[in-house]
Specification:
The protein is α/β, with parallel strands linked by helices and 236 residues long. It has a single domain, classed as NAD(P)-binding Rossmann-like Domain (Rossmann fold, 3-Layer(aba) Sandwich), CATH 3.40.50.720. It contains eight helices and seven strands; from the N terminus they run βαβαβαβαβαβααβα. Strands 3-2-1-4-5-6-7 form a seven-stranded parallel beta sheet, with helices on both faces. Strand 1, helix 1 and strand 2 form a beta-alpha-beta unit. Helix 3 runs parallel beside helix 4 and helix 4 packs parallel to helix 5. The radius of gyration is 17 Å and the shape is globular.
């Protein structure tokens, strides 16, 4: 693979929803994007829709160490890695159970996808991101900060990811680490969280992307940022 002077990003969970919207926005800005998703067929369709020679798609599961290594290797082969967006997430059972009834095997799967895998991917990508003084964005949720009934599994995993982000932010001075809360969006995962309910009042993921772009453009201090505050031009 020929190296490019274009900035390189790794985006997980990029076949649909927010990950797909961020991928499209970065491609339009002249980035090369290494994108993954568990559903190979959906990722293939996304690649066809975006139709960009600067999009490198690698189907796979972020909980798989060999897949994480392949993502980083592809990014390094393409050029200089500047950005990692840990967007892939696992909701857990739908409808979501109360913590008192949460199956341990399901909770373990949620934490492996939402906490352990993002940290492992960060560890794999950190040398390259350190060289470029790059950025890490861990996509979080308001469920990490608010005690919503039924959100104990997903919410606590995102709270753990928030703390991982905060600690990395003070440990990795050469790399800026953000926890980014996009708020409610009209996505498949959000619909699964509210089975049978009408979520058409939630914004499309594309409406939230400008908030993340503002974060990347302004590059404030490491920390936790809410899309609503960034779109309003204010720090949370």
């Amino acid at each position: 693979m020929t190296q490019s002077n274009r900035p390189i990003a790794i985006i997980t969970g990029a076949s649909r929803g927010f990950g797909k919207a961020v991928t499209a926005a970065l491609l339009a800005r002249g980035w090369t994007v290494v994108a993954d998703a568990r559903r190979a067929d959906e990722l293939k369709v996304t690649a066809q829709e975006l139709n960009s020679e600067s999009l490198i798609v690698l189907p796979g599961d972020v909980t798989d160490a060999s897949h994480r290594d392949a993502l980083v290797a592809a990014a390094i082969a393409a050029g200089t890695l500047h950005l990692l967006v840990n967007n892939a997430s696992r909701l857990g059972p739908s409808p979501q159970p109360a913590l008192a009834d949460y199956p341990a095997i399901e909770l373990s799967a949620v934490y492996h996808t939402n906490v352990f895998a993002p940290l492992a991917l960060i560890q794999a990508a950190l040398p390259a991101l350190t060289d470029s003084e790059g950025v890490i964005v861990n996509v979080t949720s308001d469920a990490a900060a608010e005690p919503y009934p039924g959100w104990g599994g997903y919410g606590s995993s995102k709270a753990a990811l928030d703390q991982v982000s905060a600690i990395l932010g003070v440990e990795t001075s050469a790399v800026t680490v953000y926890a980014f809360d996009p708020g409610d969006m009209r996505t498949e995962m959000h619909q699964a969280a509210f089975p049978g309910e009408d979520i058409s009042d939630r914004p499309e993921p594309e409406a939230v992307v400008p908030a993340l772009l503002r974060l990347l453009d302004s590059r404030p201090a490491a920390g936790r940022y809410r899309a609503a505050d960034l779109l309003a031009g204010a720090r949370p």
